[in-house]
Amino acid sequence: MDINIKFTIKVTKKDASIIDNTVTSFANRFLTSVPADIDRCIKHLEPIIEERRRNMENMNDMLSWLMAEAEGDETSTRNLTLKILTVNFAAIHTSTMTFYHALFYLAEHPEYMEPMREEIEEVVDREGWTHSAVKQMFKVDSFIKESQRLNTLGCLVMDRVACHPVTFPDGTYIPKGTHMSIPAHALHTDDAVYENPHTFDPFRFADRTKQQYAGHKGDMVSTSTEFVAFGHGRHACPGRFFAANELKLMLAHLVMTYDIKLQGNAGRPPNMWFMVHCIPNLKAEILLRKRVD
Asked: So where does heme get bound (predicted)?
């Protein structure tokens, strides 16, 4: 865990290209500790990778998936380690920013804590802190999903490159090599899709009596042409199920343990934008107080 967290920070500060050993420069090896961190990670993963190679038919996890798809030099222990580090790099900052976006809404609207507390207490008393219990925390799930809707990690998602020329039914022609994206922010704030789309409605997706959210359609892991925070289609984020459980547990723990409000009772801190990327405000301050029953 320590290696993954520090790797994410160091790569962001330095040149992200060093995660690809084909472009690692001589200077980078001496100006950053990332190569040493990679070597440390190889020592940890090498015996696991060797064990996977001996027993691939009985394995079903991220590492085994990467190994099954690897070809040529991609099968080396170093390159498999780099892929694991890259996957973790992509997961850490995205989950962190998603949680902070939701945290700012909670600090701005502490009145939403009590409905979530009631739900969490009822479910945990019945199920304990189990996977089944987390699945039944519909208000917690909806709170995070609504935050995602208004604060997708970027205004453009699902970047694609056309491998072949395509003509759509309406006559739109996409030449080979065209770069395309889905306008997530515009889609998520479309009043033809969402009622009062610019209003934060924390339990918008929690009402399972509504047809569009019946069953598991309202869950944050459910992708659709109307909700693309995790992408959509066959290449939707495969880690969204783990991320959803992680985020819901974090929010549930915070709600049950602390009272929270914004410093100075100001409104929700404005987001920061870097090109097409939406980042939670880095200078915002919130106040936490241990909850007293």
From this structure: 237
